[in-house]
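Example 3.2
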Amino acid sequence: MKAIFLNEKAGPEALVAGDLPQPRAGAGQVLVKVHATAVTPTEFDWFPTWNTPSGQARPFPIVLSHEFSGVIESLGPDVTGLKVGDAAYGLNDWFTNGAQAEYCVAPVAAIAPAPKSIDHVKRAVVPISALTSWQGLFDRIKLQHGERILIHGGAGGVGIFAVQLARWRGAHVIATASNKNLSFVQSLGADQVIDYHATRFEKVVRDIDCVFDAVGGDTLVRSWDLLAKNGRLVTVATGSEKTTDQRVRDAFMLVQANASQLTEIATLIDSQKLRVFVEAVFPLSKARDAYLRAKQGEMRGKIALTKL
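Structure, written as tokens:
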């Protein structure tokens, strides 16, 4: 199969195109013919990108991107509830080769029937960001109707879903964004949007029930004192993973694949309660260019990669 991959531990500049053996679905897995995937620049900093679960170096070549939309090509043993030809979207194992290829393998517990109202490109940018938002808001901080929540990075890949899901839950949503994205984030359902370049958010909000942080760094540090008594904070910022601050370590969350949640998210998309945004689309052969665009920041949503 055709694929984009790494033959050394390096950045996007080392991505190359070539042929790799087509994977096969094992027990509890499906083989997916990939129609689109998405760029996650922080993947170059992830432990599973370069290591096995036991900490050994992963063998090259390494294929990136672990969220996808496509069509089920074949089923492994013991797979039920899905059939060949079904449109599906989801994740595959972080420690295995990803979806920057014609085919990828995914556990059946990590994929779901794709939303019908959007195309493969939009579907591909949903799984990581939407699941991160869902699990952070509902599983970790257990956001309740009527609570006040501050969401950092409201126009980013994760923030877009966090704002909409918090609004759907019935929370009072305050979000930070750049000046050019203020109206956009309001259109997602935010009750108040703060231009983080012009205003320090701690000057205008206090006694917040929940903080959902997708930015990290100084933004996270300044957020703790905003919490009301019994307030909760979750951070999904990659830089928080390696901190020695126990408070941050306790607040940090990594997304988990979850087919049932992906099914619920698809239902929200098809019922027009959840909108999906793609910043840009590149052919897979231009993956390097896609990462360069992602590095520039200031995006509304993620960047998608289509077939070679």
